[in-house]
Design goal:
Number of domains: 1
Number of helices: 7
Shape: globular
CATH architecture: 3-Layer(aba) Sandwich
CATH class: Alpha Beta
Helix content: 40-55%
Strand order of the largest sheet: 2-3-1-4-5
Number of strands: 5
Largest sheet: 5 strands, parallel
Structural class: alpha/beta
């Protein structure tokens, strides 16, 4: 019997903890012998979306590409774990509507916490005007309206956040 694929779509500000949670989810799912693939925003931008900028149009194109790949994987029984800022509600809704078993995970951390975690110094550069159109500073982030899971990474451990997501995967019949 082929196992059911799905898309775990982790969205949130830079530094909220998307990649950290996604990596922990991948390990947990692998321990359960599930086919899983991580689609990390930074890796995608370096490879699949190289050359795209950060205009709304380019961001939407990037998200569409990730959604397309995630759908291909999910259609083959893979749990596609996407960790992409994806700041705009409308494009996330488009991906949801074109997907089967789309689970939106809002990785929620206050801006101040995200800035304190910023190892690349991107927030400081954005605040200094060196980076324009930075999500959360001078470009909007539209929080999900009805995510299946919200992880409050300023208050939860990684294990607690992963546990919440795993519980929803079980509720959806994916595990």
């Amino acid at each position: 019997m082929t196992k059911k694929g799905s898309i775990l779509w982790l969205t949130g500000l830079s530094g909220a903890g998307k990649t950290t949670i996604a990596q922990a989810l991948v390990k947990e799912l692998q321990m359960q012998a599930r086919a899983v693939e991580l689609l990390d925003g930074d890796v995608i931008r370096t490879n699949l979306s190289k050359g795209l900028g950060f205009s709304k149009e380019d961001r939407d194109t990037n998200v569409r590409r990730v959604g397309f790949v995630a759908n291909l994987l999910a259609g083959h029984g893979v749990i596609a774990v996407s960790a992409v800022i994806s700041p705009y509600q409308q494009i996330r809704d488009q991906i949801r509507q074109s997907s089967v078993d789309f689970i939106e995970v809002y990785v929620n951390a206050p801006l101040e916490v995200c800035e304190s975690r910023d190892v690349k110094g991107l927030y400081a550069k954005a605040r200094a005007g060196e980076i324009r159109g930075f999500t959360g500073i001078d470009d909007p982030y539209e929080p999900p309206l009805k995510p299946e899971v919200t992880c409050y990474t300023a208050d939860e451990t990684i294990a607690e956040s992963v546990g919440k997501v795993m519980q929803v995967l079980a509720q959806f019949g994916i595990l």
